[in-house]
Amino acid sequence: MEIIKTAIEGVVIIEPRLFKDDRGYFFESFSQREFTEKVRKVDFVQDNESKSSYGVLRGLHFQKPPYAQSKLVRVIKGSVLDVAVDIRKGSPTFGEHVSVELTEENHRQFFIPRGFAHGFVVLTEEVIFQYKCDNFYAPQCEGALAWDDPALKIDWRVPADKIILSGKDQHHERLEEAGWLFDYNENLY
């Protein structure tokens, strides 16, 4: 696997090595040993999958300690714009984001460490999205930011009138209003 560093330390894009022939392709989608050597030591405990249609936006979500989560995300079918926002107070990149297009063709994966809000929007008619988490889901520790917070300057690449949100995702606070954020100087692992 090739690790592509982003503008925010710790947030990386992973490009697998594909083996193609006339039968199709093969690639190793995850290796604990290689991930630990090239990215960081993380013990994933849960795999999730979702199916969504064009314009569905899920996010910007995170979990607070003691259930903070890292995520390793990828697309099986279709295409998404995936976004990680640094919400660690005191970080030199606080409030900044990294976005990457994940598609069934590029097979890229995106690693979002603890201390980041995460979201994605569907760019194709349908998407199947998979991700690994290094902590279990804990509803009492849920947190989220408004997807359309102008301070975040995220170009979701889907017109606002085509965005489809869950009832819950329609009412999140903006970064400046957030009463709880991560501390950059705290070890989240």
Please give a structural write-up.
With 189 residues, this protein is mostly beta strands. The chain has one domain: Jelly Rolls (Sandwich). The protein has one helix and 15 strands. The strands form four sheets. A six-stranded antiparallel β-sheet has the order 1-2-11-7-13-5, with no helix packed on it. Strands 10-8-12-6-14 form a five-stranded antiparallel β-sheet, with no helix packed on it. The longest helix has 7 residues. It is globular. It starts with a strand and ends in a 6-residue tail after the last strand. The model has no long low-confidence stretch (mean pLDDT 96).
Brief rundown of the structure:
By secondary structure, the protein is mostly beta strands. 4% of the residues lie in helices and 41% in strands.
